[in-house]
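Exercise 7. Given the encoded structure of a 213-residue chain, write a plausible sequence.
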């Protein structure tokens, strides 16, 4: 199959959530010597982006988005064995966690999966993450972008606590912070000195790409 047609088939099969077709197309592309960078950017990532756009328009729903993201992520792992010879570099380091006293993780998990499938090195700190852990992990991993998730009005103030702690430790200069979750908003992000608010995984991805150029 011609390379261009193969990539189009891959993008289309992601829209159909056809896991078998996606897996087969990736294998065929590798066998035909398609550049791994092109396979990721014009195949997997492009397909996931289109699925995300359909989600934002209400054409597909959360379960479909989650399935599509997982299919893409699984194939990204398959491509890891080919990364060295193609010298692919990650787009950047992204860290995410749900703030202290909040145990919601569905939205956070989708964001982590979408960022990973889009070529970012992702560190997922999990749920109910203490401020001290956020500070320690930022020092250790040195991410360029940090996502702070909160699903409750009673815990969203911990987003501000984390930002203030990072500022106190001198860690804000090279770190962009995106806040998200049901009670968050652009006004809240501005109030607590976050760099951006993300309504969902794909708006967060767009903000990240603005920050990293």
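Solution.
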């Amino acid at each position: 199959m011609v390379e261009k047609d193969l990539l189009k088939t891959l993008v289309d099969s992601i829209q159909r959530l056809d896991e078998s077709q996606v897996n087969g197309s990736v294998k065929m592309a590798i066998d035909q010597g398609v550049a791994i960078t092109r396979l990721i950017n014009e195949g997997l990532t492009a397909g996931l982006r289109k699925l995300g756009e359909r989600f934002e328009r209400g054409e597909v729903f959360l379960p479909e988005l989650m399935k599509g993201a997982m299919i893409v992520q699984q194939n990204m792992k398959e491509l890891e064995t080919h990364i060295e010879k193609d010298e692919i570099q990650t787009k950047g380091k992204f860290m995410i966690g749900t703030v202290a006293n909040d145990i919601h993780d569905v939205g956070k998990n989708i964001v982590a999966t979408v960022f990973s499938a889009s070529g970012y090195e992702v560190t997922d700190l999990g749920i109910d993450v203490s401020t001290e852990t956020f500070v320690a992990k930022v020092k250790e991993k040195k991410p360029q972008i940090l996502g702070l998730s909160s699903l409750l009005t009673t815990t969203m103030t911990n987003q501000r606590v984390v930002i203030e702690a990072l500022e106190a430790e001198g860690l804000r200069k090279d770190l962009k912070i995106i806040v998200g979750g049901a009670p968050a908003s652009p006004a809240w992000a501005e109030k607590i000195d976050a760099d951006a608010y993300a309504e969902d995984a794909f708006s967060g991805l767009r903000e990240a790409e603005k920050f990293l150029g």
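Remark. The longest strand covers residues 93-98. Students should compare their own answers with the one above.
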